[in-house]
Amino acid sequence: MPQQVRGVIAPGKDEPVRVETIVVPDPGPGEAVVKVQACGVCHTDLHYKQGGINDDFPFLLGHEAAGVVESVGAGVTDVAPGDFVILNWRAVCGQCRSCLRGRPQYCFNTHNAKQRMTLLDGTELSPALGIGAFAEKTLVAAGQCTKVDPSVSPAVAGLLGCGVMAGIGAALNTGNVGRGDSVAVIGCGGVGDAAIVGARLAGAAKIVAVDIDDRKLATAKTMGATHTVNSRTEDAVEAVRALTGGFGADVVIEAVGRPETYKQAFYARDLAGTVVLVGVPTPDMKLELPLIDVFGRGGALKSSWYGDCLPSRDFPMLIDLHQQGRIDLAAFVTETIALDEVEKAFARMHEGDVLRSVVAF
Ligand code: APR
Ligand code: ZN
Ligand code: ZN
């Protein structure tokens, strides 16, 4: 029987979001219905609301979530009702060229639920990143569910569904930070701070946090930064070089998504260093660099999408590390809020004192 639950809808471009009754169908083949327990508020939800992703309104927002599988459709064997899962927005196909070449992070056939959730009048909803988890229950592809240790708090587990995984993965998976490396992280919001956590986990000897906001730098220190640079008052490139024996960092992670900070990352790295772009630029942004400087420096320029994560590998591992006290994911949960407070959380995002607001059910 299709169920009626409450969910947060973005009705049209730049219109305030609101809670509506939505209809969740029974899971079809390969699908699962998940009772959502927590869902973080991410910038991408705001971009959907602003019409910055596409025009397929109305959206059912929310995509950084954990919950319990309620029911599964035909052919689902990897998860079962009662399993505690983190949702992911890249369920890989296992069959495309990228998957077959052992690079499922680049799968171009990722799948979501085939059926659609609707409003009461039958209007089809577009779930944010194929998830739509600002809702008491949501319909996803079973492959979007990854089982993890159920003793972790849902608010913490859900973080790995997007931003925190993107940051940790930028350091561990994309940047390949190694023992003793020097790392600089430019932009210390939730994603940059998670990159700091990842760098520390990897055994980086120096972790330089760069931001324009002293409050962010103070938090970055608690996350594991060994040095901080306020790039409003100091030259970021000079400061990072000075802190790394004049060389630049082995790995520089850009977690803002702007040309000027990318340029800083480019020049703040060691000649053979790696730049990882995890901040998401807008389509109109252009980067201008002297080609001779690209030529004259070795190393690698990489982008990190979803932290190059493999949910089935990375989610349980990071939850285990958190449960053992070796990383502190709870530090990213600034506040838990109710379903009808998502609009307020969007406003707070801009005030700069929130790493993550998490809707708890
Ligand atoms: N130089 C250094 N830091 C900057 C600059 C700048 N010019 N401009 C902004 N920042 C800092 C902000 O002060 C803030 O601490 O970047 C940080 C951005 O943090 P958030 O707004 O909290 O964003 P976050 O969730 O961390 O995401 C960062 O990664 O995944 C992407 O879409 C996401 O592009 C976004 C980026
Ligand atoms: Zn694939
Ligand atoms: Zn997100």
Automatic annotation (TrEMBL):
<dbReference type="InterPro" id="IPR017816">
    <property type="entry name" value="MycoS_dep_FDH"/>
</dbReference>
<dbReference type="InterPro" id="IPR036291">
    <property type="entry name" value="NAD(P)-bd_dom_sf"/>
</dbReference>
<keyword id="KW-0560">Oxidoreductase</keyword>
<keyword id="KW-0862">Zinc</keyword>
<dbReference type="Pfam" id="PF08240">
    <property type="entry name" value="ADH_N"/>
</dbReference>
<dbReference type="GO" id="GO:0050607">
    <property type="term" value="F:mycothiol-dependent formaldehyde dehydrogenase activity"/>
</dbReference>
<protein>
    <submittedName>
        <fullName>S-(Hydroxymethyl)mycothiol dehydrogenase</fullName>
        <ecNumber>1.1.1.306</ecNumber>
    </submittedName>
</protein>
<dbReference type="InterPro" id="IPR013154">
    <property type="entry name" value="ADH-like_N"/>
</dbReference>
<keyword id="KW-0479">Metal-binding</keyword>
<comment type="similarity">
    <text>Belongs to the zinc-containing alcohol dehydrogenase family.</text>
</comment>
<dbReference type="InterPro" id="IPR020843">
    <property type="entry name" value="ER"/>
</dbReference>
<dbReference type="InterPro" id="IPR013149">
    <property type="entry name" value="ADH-like_C"/>
</dbReference>
<dbReference type="InterPro" id="IPR002328">
    <property type="entry name" value="ADH_Zn_CS"/>
</dbReference>
<dbReference type="InterPro" id="IPR011032">
    <property type="entry name" value="GroES-like_sf"/>
</dbReference>
<dbReference type="Pfam" id="PF00107">
    <property type="entry name" value="ADH_zinc_N"/>
</dbReference>
<feature type="domain" description="Enoyl reductase (ER)">
    <location>
        <begin position="12"/>
        <end position="359"/>
    </location>
</feature>
